[in-house]
Specification:
Length: 260
């Protein structure tokens, strides 16, 4: 376990496990959670005893329901340049997690919506259960994300479908298109995830890291350039919608103190 406020960490058989720990908010990803998640992943990535990293959510409803909307609303009253810089640091940390040498597995224990779907699709593998659902919501809220993650997992046709429609992707469809590597009953989710993670951790860490580096380098554009392209588009061509503009129904339904 750990002294973090919004996540939990543990180590088992050479596998570092990070649990997003805001169950009362469906593990919504505020700035603190993102910072602690990234710190934990980077610490595990720098630990020679760790051969694989598993990320999951606490509770039985959500991997993470996405970004903390009310934190985004609060940001609208702050200096725009300061907020933009904080967002870029957080998002670049997300890229750095995706590019880490140590393989990452998402143990998708429930819904992975919005920013949660982006996080899940940035990981190397995902294992889910009948409770797993993905939703790439950005286009529904006049935003853009996941263009640098999703096509690398499911290919262009399915990525276009998921990004353009913002539809709910049920577990079986996610398995069929490669968004899930394995689909198991929820009671078996941890065992299956740890089976795969332990197998990876038992191999040569140097060789596994080399495989991952080469796979990323062999893309037509490297992962960082894909990420950079998305950031530049959102900055220069179509700025992402503000939280109050994007989520009026959520805010009206939940009230000013709720968080997604």
């Amino acid at each position: 376990m750990s002294d973090y406020k919004t996540i939990l960490t543990e180590v088992e058989n050479g596998v570092g496990i990070v649990t997003l720990n805001r169950p009362e908010k469906l593990n919504a990803m505020n700035r603190d959670l993102n910072a602690e998640l990234q710190e934990a992943v980077f610490n595990f990535d720098g630990n020679p005893a760790i051969g694989c990293i598993v990320i999951t959510g606490s509770g039985d409803r959500a991997f993470t329901a996405g970004g903390d909307i009310h934190e985004q609303v609060a940001d609208e009253g702050c200096d725009p340049k300061d907020v933009a810089e904080k967002k870029r640091r957080t998002r670049y940390g997300g890229y750095q997690m995706a590019a880490a040498d140590t393989p990452t597995i998402g143990m998708i224990n429930g819904i992975a919506y919005g920013g949660g779907a982006v996080l899940a699709s940035s990981l190397d593998m995902r294992i889910g259960s009948e409770k797993t659902k993905f939703r790439f919501l950005a286009a529904a809220y006049k935003r853009i994300n996941a263009t640098w993650t999703l096509p690398n997992q499911v290919g262009w046709p399915k990525a276009k479908e998921f990004l353009f429609t913002a539809k709910i992707v049920e577990a079986q469809e996610a398995l069929d298109c490669g968004l899930l590597n394995h689909l198991v009953p929820s009671a078996d989710l941890r065992n299956k995830t740890m089976e795969i993670a332990t197998m990876i951790a038992g191999n040569s860490h140097e060789a596994v890291a080399g495989c991952k580096r080469l796979l990323l380098q062999d893309m037509n554009a490297d992962l960082e350039q894909q990420w950079e392209n998305e950031q530049n588009y959102a900055r220069d061509i179509m700025p992402n919608a503000s939280a109050t503009e994007a989520f009026p129904e959520f805010l009206a339904r939940k009230g000013e103190h709720a968080a997604e």
